[in-house]
Amino acid sequence: GPRHFAHAFDRPVVSLFGPTHIGWTETYHPRAVHLQKRVECGPCQLRACPLDHRCMTSLTPAEVLAAAEGLL
């Protein structure tokens, strides 16, 4: 995906993780910021959430913006 391209072209990138475990898809890109909320049900690796997608909905636009600004 986009973060793999960012690594290949040495560009900064912010990645949002929900049910996916960061370690399973790590690119080890030094200019990457990974955002993932710690929730009791995850990372679950499920494509369909039986709950309320709290791993994604708890990430705020302000957190994403702050991460992006930190890379600029």
Topology of helices and strands:
Layout lengths: L1 H7 L4 E4 L15 E4 L18 H4 L3 H11 L1
Parallel strand pairs: 1-2
Molecular structure report:
The protein is an alpha+beta fold and 72 residues long. The chain has one domain. It is built from three helices and two strands, in the order H-E-E-H-H. The protein has helices at 2-8, 54-57, 61-71; strands spanning 13-16, 32-35. A two-stranded parallel ribbon has the order 1-2. The longest helix has 11 residues, at 61-71. The chain is globular. The two termini are 21 Å apart. The model has no long low-confidence stretch (mean pLDDT 94). InterPro entries: Glyco_trans_9, LPS_LOS_Heptosyltrfase. One of its GO terms (cellular component) is cytosol. GO terms for molecular function: ADP-heptose-lipopolysaccharide heptosyltransferase activity.
Low-confidence stretches: none
The secondary-structure class comes to: alpha+beta
Q: What share of residues are in beta strands?
A: 5-15%
Give the distance, in angstroms, between the N- and C-terminal Cα atoms: 21 Å
Element-by-element helix/strand order: HEEHH
Number of helices: 3
> Please, how many domains?
1
In spatial order, strands of the major sheet run: 1-2
Any idea what the radius of gyration is?
13 Å
Average pLDDT taken over every residue: 94
Instruction: Report the strand count.
Output: 2
Helix fraction, binned, reads: 25-40%
Form type: globular
Quick one: biggest sheet? 2 strands, parallel
